[in-house]
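Most newcomers find our protein records easier to grasp once they have seen one. Sequence and backbone structure share a record, each on its own labelled line. Nothing more is needed to start thinking about how sequence determines fold. As an example, a complete record with its sequence and its structure tokens follows.
=====
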Amino acid sequence: MGKTYVFVNQKGGVGKTTSAISLGAYLAEAGKSVLLVDFDSQANLSNGIGAGHGKPGVYELISGTATLEQVIRSTEIPTLQVIPASIDLSGAAVELVEEEGRDFFLKNALAPIRDRYDYILIDCPPSLGVLTLNGMVAADAALIPMQCEYFAMEGLALLLQTIKRIQKKLNPSLEVGGLFFTMYDSRTRLAQEVVTQVSAYFKQKVFTTIVPRNVRLSEAPSYGQPISRYDPNCSGAKAYKSLAGEVIRRGA
């Protein structure tokens, strides 16, 4: 059976979507079958992987107006597929609140294909709202990208409290698959302190790979390509390739 990960962080701009795309691409290039699920109405993952944000997509899937076969799209990497999002998903957040069983829409929708992929990676909005809640209920483990700054540490405490509540009430099997640092600038003392403090507290839960600040990572989405195809020799690409290796080895 494959494993389903959800990328979560209620703080925006931490590299969550970039991490989902980049990690997914390198897992696929390592020979794994991977499905990316864009569960954010901004559809940044869909555009960043070159899938566009047309319909049908994840909104039509959870609303029952499209099948899995209709919404899954191929990418330029043969073993990497994606379910795209659209702005319609923002309306789904309102609809889900009003529906019975609202916390399990995504889990139920993906259930038939969980064994089809080695990895399913779910990208959620930068919030702890109903869409992110759905993502965590559908997942086996949460991957948490952290920017190396003070406010990121404050937000981490709130996120972990939310994960504990979900474990208690909705998804007892949900684990913290791991934390990893993004946008790291070794020249700043704060970045070094954040890495030291978080690593000391979470120990084995922290991946050893640290993703540096890298302009090529920011450029790649505008070309609809993962960094593994856009510039595989840049420092950001090498970091995500290393992170993919850790995920495979650790079964995080």
Q: What stands out?
A: The mean pLDDT is 90. The CA atoms of residues 6 and 142 lie 5 Å apart.
